[in-house]
Amino acid sequence: MTTSEPASTPAPPAPQRSKGFVIGRVAGAPVIVTRSWFLAAFVLTILFVPNVQNLAPGLGAGAYLVAFVFVLLLFGSVFLHEAAHALVARARGQNVTELAVTLWGGHTAYTGGLGRPLDGFLVAVVGPLTNLALAAGFWFAYQASPVLNVPTLLLFAGAASNAFVGAFNLLPGLPLDGGQILESVVWAVTGKRTTGTVVAGWAGRVVAVGVLLWALVVPFLRGATPDITNVLLSALIGAFLWAGAGAAIANGRRREAVDGLTAAGLAGPAVLVPLGSTVADALDAQAAAAGGGTPSHYVVVVGHGDVPIAVIDGGAVTAVPESARGVTLVDAVAVPFVPGSAVHPELAGTDLLTQLAQRSGGARLVPVVDDGRVTGVLDLADVARAIRAT
What residue ranges are annotated as transmembrane (predicted)? Predict the structure, then answer.
């Protein structure tokens, strides 16, 4: 079971939801049972049937029903695990977008950007702790049962499965919850989240190899031959963990590249003209700033105190006949800035993206202002291209 935090973008689209059946909502987000879960439920039911038949040989075909009830119990535990992630994530200021039950167990997706190591630690650790608490509850109920029957068998299975899921998810490597815990610890120690992500990603690769080695080496140490089913299952899980760890490392390095993006570095230069100027005045100011070269400066219309009001639309300017440019005011060819959309030139990384997402109001251009002085204009299309290039 994992949690995922999609990267913010200047104008984020609606999060892409997993395909499946919505069975409810938790923390304001849909709970989705994906189609792959049905495959997992079928396979796990078949695998669990021999255990049921060994412990309760008189059940006959009823063993399949008992096995399926165990599968439902297991995925109910997965749901509680993900619900714990979602509730804590929302309590820490995140926007939870979905809880999904999948072939691999489940995941919780949220946006908002973890602001502190403690946020990531709490969101991650609560899932495995939920499973361990469930394991303890099932175990005490099992111990209290006076006879070994089908319900008692399910209690034991619930205790064992939750103990395994909780302990396995605490392994210190991404994409497991234990990996996010490790990421948060390294982040707190170094002050750099990217360092934590990369360290936890490489630890995840070690865990992935360890899962396969466990299936191969432990039987030899016991003087037995590795079970081919366990080896194949471990290889499948190991491949999933390796891929997730690799993606985490790539995301960490991408986040580091994004952190290097600044408003000043991405903005285009600007030349200012006061409100009430004509189009001819604006073109003259732009040409003067170019110094005889190709005009490249944005023309920003400013009011009293050089407060940015609007930016000249080049397409609209070309539509004004030359004979009319001396009498046409810039108001007629300018696009107003969204109030409050200005950004500081030193704003960078996720802070820059978050402010653009929250304040740009869907506009493509925003002013860059330093201590009341317009220093440039930021085109969100340039920001998006810079992010794609990281």
Answer: 26-49, 61-80, 121-142, 148-171, 202-222, 228-250
Structure-derived torsion over alpha carbons of residues 168, 144, 84, 164, reported in degrees to the nearest 10: 10
Domains along the sequence of the chain with CATH: 2-259 (no CATH), 263-388 (3.10.580.10)
Predicted confidence at residue 12, as pLDDT, reads: 40
Q: Reply yes or no: is the peptide bond before residue 175 cis, omega within 30 of 0.
A: yes
Give the model's pLDDT for residue 10. 34
Segments in the chain below pLDDT 70: 1-16, 112-113
Structural element, H or E, at residue 212: helix 193-221
* C-alpha dihedral, 181 to 186 to 187 to 189, nearest 10°: 130
Angle of helix 228-259 versus helix 193-221 axis, rounded to 10: 170
Write the CB contacts of 34 (distance below 8 Å, at least 6 apart in sequence).
18, 19, 20, 100, 101, 102, 103
CA separation for the pair 20, 33 (Å, rounded): 5
CB 263 within 8 A of CB 345: yes
What pLDDT shows up at residue 115? Answer: 77
8 Å CB contact between 26 and 83:
yes
Question: What is the predicted pLDDT for the residue at 204?
Answer: 97
Does the pTM exceed 0.90?
A: no
55, 109 contact by CB (below 8 A)? no
Helix (H) or strand (E) holding 40: helix 35-55
Cα 143 to chain centroid distance, Å, stands at 41
Angle at 80 between CA 76 and CA 85, to 5 degrees: 145
Contact predicate 135/155, CB 8 Å: no
pLDDT at 2: 57
**How do beta strands 298-302 and 270-274 pair?**
parallel
pLDDT score of 1? 60
**Residue entry with tokens 């790539």:** 250
Q: What residue ranges in 52-194 does DSSP mark as E strands?
A: 95-102, 105-111
